[in-house]
Specification:
The complex is a heterodimer. Chain A is mainly α. Chain A is built from 16 helices and no strands. The longest helix of chain A has 32 residues. The chains are: A mainly alpha, B alpha+beta.
Chain lengths: 370, 604
Amino acid sequence: MQRLLIEKIEHRIIVGILSFLGIMILVGWIAINENGRMQAFEQQYEARAIERGAYLYNTNCSECHATDGLGLVGRAPGLNNPYLFGHDFLGSIRRERDSLERELLGEVTAARQAEIEARMVALDADEADIRAQMQTAIDNGYNPDSPDRLVTVGWGGTLDSYLLTTLIHGRPLSGLYWPTGQGMSAWSQTAGGPLRTDQLEDLTAFILNYDKGSNWTIEDLNAVVQFPIEPVDPSTVVIGDQPEAIGTDVDAILAELVNYTGDPVNGQQIYNTAPYVCSSCHMNAAVAPLTELTWAVANGERLEDPLLAGYTPEQYLVESIVAPNDYIVPGYPANVMTQNFGERMPYQDLADILAYLQSYDTGVEAAAAN
Amino acid sequence: MSILPFPSFLDDVKEKGIRRAVFEGVNEVTERLTAGMNLQDIREALRGEAASRKPNPRLQPHADGFWLHMRPSYFHKSVTGVYPEFRLGWLSTYFVFFETITGIFLMVFYTPSPDFAYANMLNIMSNVPLGQFMRDLHRLGAEAMVLIVTLHMLRTFFTASYKKPRQFTWFTGVVLLALTFFLSFTGYLLPWDQLALWAVTIGASMVEAAPPEVVGTNLNLLLRGGPEIGANGLLRFYLLHVVAVPALLFIFVGVHYYKVVVHGHSLPPREENIGEDTAKRVPLDKRVYFIPDILTSELMWIGVTTLILVILVTWFFHAPLENHADPQSTPLGTTAPWYFLWIQGALKLGDKVIWGIIFPTVFVVFLMVMPYLDTTPSRRYAHRRFMISLGLFLTSSITVLSYMGLPEFGVVNPADTTILHELTMEPAHNHVGALRPVPYDELRSGMYTTRQFAAEPGQDVGAVVNAFNLEIQNDGSDEFVRGFLASDRHLDLGNPLAFSAVPVDAPELMHVLDEFYHELEAHGDELHNAWGAVLISDAQPNLKRVDAIIYWQQVETDENGRPVLDANGEPIPMLDANGEPIHRVASEDIFIHRDAQYFNAPGV
């Protein structure tokens, strides 16, 4: 083997200098292309965020907002909706009328005045025509004079931030004024929901991708099944006496629970809707144990665990609800389930949920008939 | 008389003239900076001439300077070539500095918190000029460093350079190897993507097996900062990665280097008499001085190695970045980082404590004490048949165990899960589901079936597909599949499935379905009488929904999930209480956006 691989010192110096030059040239070349590369990455990332958002939407949101994003009657508003994106079908007519009216305030010749008045009549006819075309949407709750959701709710931020904050907090009171009585629950983990912030950002990207910009048509508007329902005046809402919450003492809860009879049908309703929305997690075995066969599994498999020796299935389920971290089903992480159900849940709700879970195998209707 | 109240440079200028005064000033500063070499000495050294004054000024920097006091002032001619060192020790040190520099750049743009870490990665990739370049270099350097340090150890083993008097040098080397692994492993978590989270979760869970249970559990808690890796765990890994492990590493590098200065580089085994160590007694005619030969050589190699790395990240290597870490969703085929695959492979041999903890610990401890066990004086290859066989045996064992650590080995997933995963998976491990890279314009809305590819050559494809449509409506499978899609996948089709032939101008979609068909055929025993389908529908402007579906007849399986075959080699269909065959359906749905830019890894 040759000494030092390159024998002559001047050759080593030349190779070193050439390598250094090569590095500089390549780094320079990369730097020149950097803007394009960064843009391409961002475009690709946004596209993939929309894909992930679509998947999350399909799993978590389509139940209420419909797979096609058009909403479900009485359940949730459409998001594939020109109203959400503030598209004003009457905007150009309004703007033209405004400018003509302003012109009339100044000095105009009689001929011009007649021309303007004729144009106003034509605009009125156009507007009436468009309003007539929108009749389906108007019947569904659309107000052509307030065509922008953000303006209607007085939102100062962007549509992006509006969607994201709505997803984070949900609409805690919306059950009060939606016909089904189901409100939108919080979806962010920071607000007690199941999703991470980056997932909510993906969902937002997906919803924003419904935007057709200036290509929205009146057919799109008429296709919307449900428009938002405005909240009631909070001062008119009567909540009444709140029943006592169950607390976290499992023995005390079980002792008191015998005084209540559970209704499985009502339990199903409670299980699937706000404020608890148990089903939003217990529908996907990767996130939480499935609702299906809860009672049978609790009674059989779970109680065989030595940690649960001597438990009854009721005791196990009550403890799982009020103190979720006391026993974690193998394969699932701790701290995922909401920790404060004990402070929020009245006895009747608990009894109903237990009745629902117990009836799951035989079917809710059959249990109710019994 | 002096201009200033004390002797100054200006007096020099007055006395000697400006040129000479400046030259002498520069010369003096140079001599102080280099700890002994003035301009003339440097010029002579770079010209390859002998030093013109005595004592030799080229030895001064080694005696008086900080940086060179830990380098020998001359090497033996026999260790300056490629053999026996292959520059591996030098390269290891090169990577220590290389990783430090690129790492400091990345630190500027990084926050060790699960809320920000992944967003920081996106920022580095999309908003920091040269951000991707630095990240690629850092990642490539990390992988290369693990490899180089390991090879350095192997080289030292095979040339028996660990023998007396270098036992302790070897010991510090094993410590440095472990620190290198740990540095790379702690860095793995920082991007906070799926790859990072799950590789580290698997790696860290090995700690949990440490006996007794109370030790394992608490070690695991300490490392992860909680039952799962979360904010605490990420912060701990970050601090280990940027503070604790590098600090230890620099200390041990110092010791390692000092030992090299003290003992010299060991010569090739054949050049010494048995039991002798002549590295420090280099005859004058065999000396290669550090200044200028080794120094220029090393500076050149810094340039060449960096250039190679830059070329690699420009065209051939990009650091992976998968989706955001999700503790609730374990990706199929999760592995530890490649240099820990051997432990993962060993775990498949049996008990977690024996193979996950005791075996690696014994192995590392054996490496550390080996020079004190193998005290035979000869370093010649011919005299070390046992040790060299042992080395080859251990190297091949680790290689085989690493292979066994791969998810392909010994882990049986149901065929339907595997096939659907191969069709739809998100990009991971240089691999992407086959449907994703299909050009967007070929994803025409419609329903396509693998049955089309069962057509005999010359048969009308359209007729085959139409016959299939009738067949599934008559045997009830149409209703069964649609019911499944509506209840499990939120896909309400309303009308019966109506398959059509794949458009001929969609060759890549055609290719994917063809592959899908052959995969089903290949797993025909497990997926008995199976057919597959791909449903493509519009979700949004520029966004398609793609459902991949497999429908099959369930067969009897053994406890490993493999189908049981009867005497004729045929699978045995399972029957329900009424004696009817049991059918199964499985599906995966993904969404594909026009701009998503999925591509097949080169060569896949």
